[in-house]
Amino acid sequence: MTLLELPLDARPREKLLTRGPAALSDTELLALLLRTGMAGKGVFALAQELVDGFGGVAGLLHAGADELKRIKGLGGPAKRAELLAVLELARRAMAQQLRAREVFSSPDAVKHYLQLHLARQVHELFAVMFLDAQNRLIQMEVMFRGTLTQTSVYPREVVVRALKLDAAAVVLAHNHPSGTVLPSRADEALTQTLKSALALVDVRVLDHVIVAPGEALSMAQRGLL
């Protein structure tokens, strides 16, 4: 069934405008964004397939351009571009919130923010959230790519960047493409190395967050900092 074949009060757009976005299910919201399905598959079926295939809306928002391109029905650039635009808006909205208030007033927001940036990456990335004296976000930067070891991440570069941004504290973060968020011994060793290096310039390491699709682990909350 297409959107136009639905009764007027059941169409997602009309339902949203009359009853508000909260009245729509995840599938209805996604169908509204997609607008059309494909031959043999209506827009609602396509929307439900996406929600199920990515493990819910959160998983879909973490999807990258290549993952979306492989989905039958999203082969054209227009729909992929719209979904990726929604993802980017979510990132920017979270970044704006983290710049406006103390980061750890909402630890879950930090985890979601990092998941949106890192969780679906196929290669391991190391990022740093640079914070001001009130623990508000100044900037987040991906600084290194590849398997993380004490020799592949250069503490001097992190220190130099922290000084340039006048950061008072940092949150370290990286992803595990394997899907597990358990820290390795190399993760723990790297954290201590960076903590010692940054302490020399009075920059505190508040946390090291490890993310994977659908999961995030705070080393500070685990007592590993």
TrEMBL record:
Q: Which UniProt keywords apply?
A: Hydrolase, Metal-binding, Metalloprotease, Protease, Zinc
Q: Which residues form the MPN domain?
A: 103-225
Q: Name one GO biological process term.
A: proteolysis
Under Pfam families, the record lists: RadC, UPF0758_N
Which Gene Ontology molecular function entries are recorded, alphabetically? metal ion binding; metallopeptidase activity
CDD domains registered for this protein in UniProt: MPN_DUF2466
Which InterPro entries does the record associate with it? MPN, RadC_JAB, RuvA_2-like, UPF0758, UPF0758_CS, UPF0758_N
User: Origin, by domain of life?
Assistant: Bacteria
User: What family name appears in the similarity comment?
Assistant: Belongs to the UPF0758 family.
Q: From the Swiss-Prot or TrEMBL record, give the protein name.
A: JAB domain-containing protein
